[in-house]
Design a protein that fits this description.
- The protein is α+β, with helices and mostly antiparallel strands.
- It has a 5-stranded mixed barrel.
């Protein structure tokens, strides 16, 4: 799997970038939020967090400006029934990560439904499945209130996006935070993967 790419922008369009990485051109589909954050111009070096989607008829590389964006993308395509990569990219194009989390916590289907190709029923299903099945809304709410460290919540989201159960991820992170309360997101994820692996 391709986890990230660092290269020179060869072509830049709002939903698609071509990165020259040591003489190889990678076409990467990106949400508008990533395009706006990176402000990619031809000749500029950028780094993208990536996800490679392999299907019978196509291989598509998706790129994101941050780990948080990629984690939301993976959560949507992996944990919400009926949500594919195109819809997940549309949601990230229309909402920031913080706005998406806030909409799920508040049960605000209207905000999520503003994304292109997302109707009210789909938005309600996203909220229902993320709140009830995955249980992430409580973590995001605690982050917003400041009772859970941002790094802990982000690490939990990343582990869930990687396929771990929330209860396993939360226990591992809590244990790691008792050992080192100042751990950043990357350290928590790496340590939790060793613990859970």
């Amino acid at each position: 799997m391709i986890s990230f790419l660092r290269g020179i922008v060869a072509e830049a369009y709002p939903h698609r970038l071509v990165l020259d990485v040591h003489g190889v051109g990678y076409e990467v589909q990106v949400p508008l939020s990533t395009f706006d954050t990176l402000n990619p111009t031809v000749g500029k070096e950028v780094t993208l967090r990536t996800h490679l989607q392999i299907r019978e008829t196509a291989q598509t590389l998706y790129g994101f400006a941050s780990d948080a964006e990629r984690d939301i993308f993976l959560l949507l395509i992996g944990r919400v029934s009926g949500i594919g990569p195109s819809t997940a990219v549309s949601i990230l194009s229309g909402l920031t990560v913080a706005a998406f989390k806030a909409a799920v916590v508040a049960g605000d289907a209207a905000t999520i439904a503003r994304a292109k190709g997302v109707g009210r029923k789909t938005a309600e299903r996203i909220i229902l499945e993320l709140k009830d099945k995955v249980g992430l809304a409580a973590t995001w709410e605690a982050q917003a209130e400041g009772t859970t460290p941002q790094a802990a919540g982000d690490a939990e989201l990343a582990l869930i996006a990687l396929g771990f159960k929330q209860i396993e991820a939360r226990k591992a992170i809590a244990s790691l935070l008792r050992e080192d309360p100042q751990s950043d997101t990357d350290k928590l994820i790496r340590s939790a993967l060793r613990m859970l692996g």
